Amino acid sequence: xxxxxxxxxxxxxxxxxxxxxxxxxxxxxxxxxxxxxxxxxxxxxxxxxxxxxxxxxxxxxxxxxxxxxxxxxxxxxxxxxxxxxxxxxxxxxxxxxxxxxxxxxxxxxxxxxxxxxxxxxxxxxxxxxxxxxxxxxxxxxxxxxxxxxxxxxxxxxxxxxxxxxxxxxxxxxxxxxxxxxxxxxxxxxxxxxxxxxxxxxxxxxxxxxxxxxxxxxxxxxxxxxxxxxxxxxxxxxxxxxxxxxxxxxxxxxxxxxxxxxxxxxxxxxxxxxxxxxxxxxxx
Length: 283
Ligand code: SF4
Ligand code: SF4
Hints:
Elements: E1 2-9, H1 14-27, E2 31-38, E3 46-54, E4 68-73, H2 81-85, E5 87-96, E6 103-104, E7 107-112, H3 114-120, H4 133-144, H5 149-160, H6 164-177, E8 179-180, E9 188-189, H7 209-214, E10 223-227, H8 236-240, E11 246-249, E12 252-255, H9 265-269, E13 276-280
Parallel strand pairs: 1-4, 4-5, 5-7, 6-9
Antiparallel strand pairs: 1-3, 2-3, 7-8, 10-13, 11-12
Helix pairs in contact: 1-4, 1-5, 3-4, 4-6, 5-6
Bound molecules: iron/sulfur cluster (SF4) (2 copies).
One iron/sulfur cluster binds at residues 227, 231-237, 253, 270, 272, 275-276.
């Protein structure tokens, strides 16, 4: 039996990806099991999904995956060090990124530019963010079930109906663009990021104070807001920011990137044209 952990953020299609991959393995003749684990029920919150597959016998293990043979990071933000530590020696880490993953450990690393593929195929979330999940599945199938691309396409079509075609193209591209990395001398061990220092008390307009102070949600972001000249400092965005990451200080808006998770709500609620825009955080 093989065990997989899929990680990402709410709204990135992590659970859907695990179900489609389970269907793919089932179509290829494997016994499968797939189920998710939700923490906070909100977009942008960490989400895990588990997948087990076995060529020979039904899967009787019922608890969540605690150690895995394969870790698939659906999100374009790096996987947490805790997730990487769950990989068994010799396991496989598959990341959604265009550039090299500059770390080493007792595991193999492969990467696929899933978000780039999604953007090219116009597979976007309601907020306009690329949904790289199916492209990442294409890469996973190439690594784990090399003759299984047809099964993946069937599973995508069965699940997505009329929306399937761009995702089928994304699966094929992900399969084709998957790159296996070799360790090089400059690679470093993958350590947990240092926690930022505690932030000072916030002036008016902060919301969600308690949660935001405890969770350094800035590490989640793959995009970040940029304030532009047309901003009239009305403060509406700060009222809606779910992390309390925006505030008005001395007649200007400030954004605390230790806590901004890149959800884009500030851009969506801003009533002023060209006052705020989302830009990608460099990988
Ligand atoms: S970004 Fe928009 S909502 Fe926020 S303060 Fe500026 S004008 Fe107001
Ligand atoms: S993107 Fe905007 S609304 Fe979302 S957390 Fe960052 S500052 Fe707040």
